């Protein structure tokens, strides 16, 4: 097991899975989410629980559930909440996203979040490490199945926020729309000011009206190659 450490001075402590260190995409997604007003949220494919941890730390009135296929990862997610005194505000369950109807009632949540696998089956070789393989490839849950689960779990007006790859944006929007989730916010993430995006952050709303807001791009570094001011804010590294 990796050693636990504070995510920032005075912030929550977190222990990632061995072989699956904390990724930038989860941190950026947690910052993109607008949890204000949500009472119950769910992280679909929660792994070691970083999204739930960051959202619970930020929003005192929120309760988070996590759903993770692998019991060892779900157990680590529970430990991460316990280390931060958040056990009473979260429940990390081992279960299959595709079996969501047997685990939760329809419309149980105001907010759903996910950092799903980015690559469809057959798009490349998967790592022999189970944690890395589950994180990268849609071996156990397709993009359409993920969106259908989020739609069923959310109340009307509930929000689904996720991070994905720009080359699958068209497929993602089609999957969201087919499930009754209307894309409402989009933010592109660029490694450098002159770079094309390598991540997309998306918020969709169950039963929402058409109308997409494209937010200013999030650039990870400035022209000199140093961390951008926004990344410093997100990681609590402001001087």
Keywords:
239 residues, Rossmann fold, 9-stranded mixed sheet, two-stranded antiparallel ribbon, 7 helices, 25% strand
Structure description:
The mean pLDDT is 92. The relative contact order is 0.14. Strands 3, 4, 5, 6, 7, 8, 9, 10 and 11 form a nine-stranded mixed beta sheet that branches. Strands 1-2 form a two-stranded antiparallel sheet. The chain is built from seven helices and eleven strands. With 239 residues, it is of the alpha/beta class. The two termini are 32 Å apart. Helix 3 (71-83) links the parallel strand 4 and strand 5 (90-94). The protein has one domain: Rossmann fold, CATH 3.40.50.150.
Secondary structure: elements and pairs:
Blueprint: E1 5-6, E2 13-14, H1 24-32, E3 40-44, H2 50-58, E4 63-68, H3 71-83, E5 90-94, E6 109-114, H4 130-136, H5 143-153, E7 154-164, H6 169-178, E8 181-190, E9 199-206, E10 213-214, E11 218-219, H7 229-234
Parallel strand pairs: 3-4, 3-6, 4-5, 6-7, 8-10, 8-11
Antiparallel strand pairs: 1-2, 7-9, 8-9
Helix pairs in contact: 1-2, 5-6
Task: Write a brief caption for the model.
With 239 residues, this protein is an alpha/beta fold. It has 7 helices and 11 strands. It has a single domain (5-234), classed as Vaccinia Virus protein VP39 (Rossmann fold), CATH 3.40.50.150.
Tell the overall outline: globular
Number of strands: 11
CATH topology: Rossmann fold
- Low-confidence spans: pLDDT under 50, at least 5 residues? none
- What is the structural class? alpha/beta
Mean pLDDT: 92
CATH-assigned homologous superfamily: Vaccinia Virus protein VP39
CATH architecture: 3-Layer(aba) Sandwich
Q: Count of helices?
A: 7
Percent of residues in helical segments?
25-40%
Radius of gyration over all CA atoms, rounded: 17 Å
Major sheet details: 9 strands, mixed
Structural domain count: 1
Helix and strand run: EEHEHEHEEHHEHEEEEH
The rounded distance between the terminal residues' Cα atoms is: 32 Å
How much of the sequence lies in strands comes to 15-25%
CATH class: Alpha Beta
């Amino acid at each position: 097991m990796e050693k636990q450490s504070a995510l920032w001075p005075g912030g929550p402590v977190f222990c990632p899975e061995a072989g699956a260190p904390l990724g930038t995409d989860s941190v950026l997604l947690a910052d993109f989410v607008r949890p204000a007003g949500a009472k119950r949220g769910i992280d679909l494919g929660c792994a070691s629980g970083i999204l739930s941890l960051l959202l619970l730390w930020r929003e005192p009135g929120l309760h988070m559930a996590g759903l993770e296929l692998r019991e060892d990862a779900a157990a680590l997610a529970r430990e991460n909440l316990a280390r931060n005194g958040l056990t009473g505000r979260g429940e990390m369950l081992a279960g299959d996203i595709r079996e969501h109807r047997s685990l939760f009632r329809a419309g149980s949540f105001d907010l759903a979040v996910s950092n799903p696998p980015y690559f469809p089956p057959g798009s490349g070789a998967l790592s022999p490490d189970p944690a890395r393989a589950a994180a990268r490839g849609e071996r156990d849950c397709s993009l359409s199945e993920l969106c259908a689960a989020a739609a069923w779990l959310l109340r009307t007006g509930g929000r689904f926020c996720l991070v994905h790859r720009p080359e699958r944006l068209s497929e993602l929007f089609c999957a969201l729309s087919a499930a009754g989730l209307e894309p409402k916010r989009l933010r592109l993430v660029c490694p450098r000011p002159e770079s094309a995006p390598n991540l997309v952050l998306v918020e969709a709303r169950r039963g929402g009206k058409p109308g997409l807001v494209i937010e200013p791009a999030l650039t990870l570094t400035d022209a000199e190659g140093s961390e951008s001011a926004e990344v410093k804010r997100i990681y609590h590294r402001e001087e």
